[in-house]
Fold this protein.
Amino acid sequence: YGQLGLNNKENSNYAKLVLGEGGSSNLDRIIDISAGSYGSAAVNQFGWVFVWGNGTYGEMANGTKTTKLTPTKTTINTGITASMGAGHTISIGQNGHGYTWGRNTYGELGVGNTTNSTTVNKVLEAITEVSAAGYETVAKKVDGNIVAVGLNTDGQLGNGTVTNATSFTTITLPTAVTAMNKVKVVIQDMTEKGDI
């Protein structure tokens, strides 16, 4: 699909430098990079989010379904991170907003429907971390809550159901121990020196 960014669709058995936008020089000053199933995404130190590879589902975020064999800029110029899944991408802007685009077969874009998107959608605010994996998207919010969206046939969204979600839902996390009186410490066979 061209996800190596080498201006071809050939496999490579060793590491090579990713070409720059349009195939000129090399992609540089990268602060974050992600390899998806059919494409790749990177963020440079100036905040530009670049994508390349398969474009069948709108992965290039340029209003088309065109495959790109070298990195191409999205409209996001304040990015700090990006994560690509199986045809979809989520990125965080410097403002803490989450943006998605691309494949949306199971609702993984979090836009309330299952329509693929060839353009960037603002879907979340106040987030600090993101991960796109397969057909799911997960984000950590500033308040510590974890939210997820997309494929959920095996309960992978952690929301207590096996129903796909097209809008972000909060993951139910295990209850933490809140008081030390609930923890029992057993020390057995301690020597004079404190060795066990």
About this structure: Residues 180-196 have pLDDT under 50 and may be disordered. The first strand starts at residue 30 and ends at 35. The radius of gyration is 21 Å.
